Write the structure tokens for this entry.
Amino acid sequence: MQDFDVIVIGGGPAGLSAAISAANAGMKTIVIERGDYPGTKNVMGGILYTTPTAMVVPEFWQEAPLERPIIEQRIAMLSGEQSIMAGYREPEWAQEPYNAHSVFRVPFDRWLAKQAEKAGVMIVTETLVEDLLYDGEDIIGVRTGRDEGDLGAKVVILAEGVNNFLAVKAGLAKPLRAETVAVTVKEVISLPKEKIEDRFCLEEGQGATIELYGDSTAGMMGVGFIYTNKESISLGVGALLRPLIHEEWTPNDLIENLKAKPYVKRLLQGGETKEYLAHLIPEGGYANVPKLYRQGLLVVGDTAMLMNSFNREGSNFAMISGKIAGEVAAENIQNGDISHNAMAVYENRLKDSFIMQDMHHYRHMAKFFEDNPHLLKMYPEVVSKAMKMYLTVDGVPKKKHQKDIMKMVFENRSKRGLIKDAYGAWRALL
């Protein structure tokens, strides 16, 4: 049986970051990926943040396959054929060190895998890890589907993605439930770069994002998005699995609903769909983060339910959790202590990082929206009607419009209801 210091299961950003971190610390490290190559089994919206990524590969933007630096971020609230928009533009984000880039996972993950190999990591693809190996209660390696048989390790890092089979087998996680995952569907739609820059009011090479709420998901808990690439647009939408099942919607229903919105249709006009992807993403939040460690084992990325969908952060959580896991694995191996208690250092460092602090801060938000489904349906409609009434010049005094708006608001939601919603939102953000 071939032995390694660290075995990483999964060749996505979390797993590769863990491998790079461990290898840089002198560990004999291997990544086992079930796909043909890193990136084949992975789906993301398409935004990569600079600071977290640079913590894994410094100055990655000098050579990584990136699309556009994001200089503007917009929010659009959709209601029927109407839309309400807000945004922030920062031209400095188009200059080093940047803030974020649009990106495609397949080329980026393959590039990140090459960085891991440069660090000394062995990467084995087209290989399924069937189970963990035990000596009593101690984890000592993995069992693969290859003829070569088992691989030994001092520490195993689970980066298997949202499908957490091995984490469940190891007694660290519960099987996925409809209320803890979302379905995200995405299309890559080709457009000439000139049209992209014209429609999004961008200088050459610059990028923008749009987050779409309300009718983007037909009022279900979720969000749509539009990201600009060099010569294409990434259009996607995700919603919690449970309401999708309840409404009997398919992933294709989600994206076709979004594409039919006038605001979206104008931006896509003349484009051709080149890719269609669908994937589960973790949405369990802080309360559903599994046990993150045991003797000789650490859990990272989507497998650990590390996702902050309210701020569009998943890949950066994955990479930083992987980096921390690789560091802790190396330190514990060097110290000769891979016990349960020694592995607890990983969880402690995560808690000290922005990852768990942000997840804890937003821990009540998903439940708040789930318990108040009118928020993503009624409020966009009310605000849209109010904007139309106030901004329409029809010879009626504005004071009369203001009274009509208040009457319309209270017809849709009582004063008590408004206070309850405001208080609930405030409490959820404490």
Notes: The chain is about 35% helix and 25% strand. The chain has a mean pLDDT of 93. The first strand starts at residue 2 and ends at 9.
